[in-house]
Inverse folding.
């Protein structure tokens, strides 16, 4: 099958064959993208990684128990040969009683990191939903433009036939026919480009949403954004996930500085041990035990600890600088999205007026050409202006809706909750609550976690 036939088949399948398919709205596309996205699954798993860091930090504050068993055979040779077999079983326990707040600071630091990672997940969710909107509107735009080009091809075919008929009776010259032929050839080329763009948009849609586009329904209204630019910026600076991510990161690094400073201070730990040794050859048993409290602290470690403190402070300062830059980037993003939305709305309104005027001009030029007061070129130029106006309106509508959702994303509101999408929402706290206290593997809670992880791995 030739490329031309493939392109024509794709357009026909979308514009005609999908009429029997279930209608799909932009909300449906976003819901499918939310459920389909592997990027969201990846970042949900990374959030669970951060959750486990809290569990591990909490575990450092608890007693640690270990066991060991040692079997030994010893022998000697010389004037006489002797051998003995022994076995030793031991239990040991240790517990950090005090470390100047270092472990507690590390726990708080990991908790702030979890909150930052949750906001990163929200930011990824925004990107996934925005890609779905862009894919939806691009398919709508390219299918409409392809249909427009197809209709233009039919119009120009009729214009060529009319020019040939008028040439046969001597009303026009060969030049008029050649001009109509040239426009028709250009229309075929434009149609091929439009069909190719539609095929590319359909593939992007399938990647973003999870399936090929069906009968896409044009959005009926724009999403609710903000009444003014300053109101949009205020919402964005206060609640954008990127802003909250860096704020939590700064807080986490503040606790990391405290932990680094605490490492230079004393710590106190408790330890205990119990061992039973048996000599199998002599049939004797020995039991020994010990317990004690140890206080320790650094005196001199070559300057490493003070370097670690300075490094932690520098990392926190770098995050504070990133917070300042992020605030400006968010304000800039809102301003750009707002300007794009206003420009698209103005273009849509202007293109509507342009279409009305161009339609009148085209109808008049065609009527006047039939009376001999207009040339074929005049008709072709009028038809081209009408085509350009309609194409501009299609593009403006696409840009307007895309810009509106981009503004929502810039404000930090492009999420499942704000849009009220019909999806099963992922709860970032559910797993955290299960692992925060670091349950043991064989405990009831640990077994429940094991089932959760197995179910997640099958999805």
């Amino acid at each position: 099958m030739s490329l031309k036939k493939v392109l024509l088949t794709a357009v026909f399948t979308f514009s005609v064959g999908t009429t029997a398919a279930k209608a799909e709205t932009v909300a449906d596309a976003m819901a499918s993208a939310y459920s389909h996205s592997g990027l969201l699954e990846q970042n949900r798993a990374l959030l669970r990684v951060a959750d486990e860091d809290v569990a591990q930090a909490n575990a450092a504050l608890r007693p640690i128990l270990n066991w060991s068993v040692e079997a030994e055979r010893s022998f000697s040779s010389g004037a006489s040969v002797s051998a003995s077999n022994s076995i030793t079983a031991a239990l040991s326990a240790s517990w950090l009683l005090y470390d100047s707040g270092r472990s507690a600071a590390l726990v708080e630091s990991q908790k702030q990191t979890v909150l930052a990672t949750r906001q990163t997940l929200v930011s990824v969710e925004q990107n996934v939903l925005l890609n779905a909107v862009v894919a939806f509107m691009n398919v709508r735009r390219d299918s409409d433009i392809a249909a427009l080009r197809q209709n233009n091809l039919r119009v120009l075919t009729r214009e060529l036939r009319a020019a040939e008929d008028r040439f046969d009776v001597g009303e026009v010259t060969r030049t008029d026919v050649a001009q109509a032929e040239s426009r028709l050839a250009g229309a075929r080329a434009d149609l091929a480009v439009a069909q190719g763009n539609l095929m590319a948009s359909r593939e992007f849609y399938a990647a973003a949403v999870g399936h090929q586009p069906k009968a896409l329904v044009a959005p009926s209204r724009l999403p609710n954004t903000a009444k003014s630019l300053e109101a949009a910026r205020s919402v964005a600076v206060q609640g954008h996930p990127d802003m909250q991510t860096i704020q939590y990161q700064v807080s986490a690094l503040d606790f990391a500085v405290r932990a680094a400073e605490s490492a230079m201070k004393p710590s106190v730990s408790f330890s205990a041990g119990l061992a039973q040794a048996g000599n199998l050859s002599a049939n004797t048993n020995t039991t020994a035990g010990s317990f004690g409290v140890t206080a320790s602290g650094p005196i001199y470690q070559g300057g490493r600890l003070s370097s670690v403190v300075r490094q932690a402070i520098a990392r926190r300062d770098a995050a504070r600088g990133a917070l300042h830059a992020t605030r400006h980037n968010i304000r800039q993003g809102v301003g750009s999205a707002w300007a794009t939305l206003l420009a698209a709305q103005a273009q849509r309104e202007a293109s509507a007026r342009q279409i009305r005027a161009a339609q009148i001009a085209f109808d008049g030029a065609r009527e006047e050409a039939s009376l001999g007061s207009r040339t074929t070129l005049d008709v072709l130029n009028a038809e081209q202006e009408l085509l350009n106006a309609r194409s501009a309106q299609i593009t403006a509508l696409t840009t307007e809706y895309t810009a509106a959702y981009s503004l929502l994303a810039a404000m930090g509101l492009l999420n499942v909750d704000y849009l009220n999408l019909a999806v099963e929402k992922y709860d970032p706290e559910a797993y955290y609550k299960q692992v925060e206290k670091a349950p043991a593997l064989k405990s009831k809670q640990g077994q429940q976690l094991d089932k959760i992880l197995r179910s997640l791995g099958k999805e």
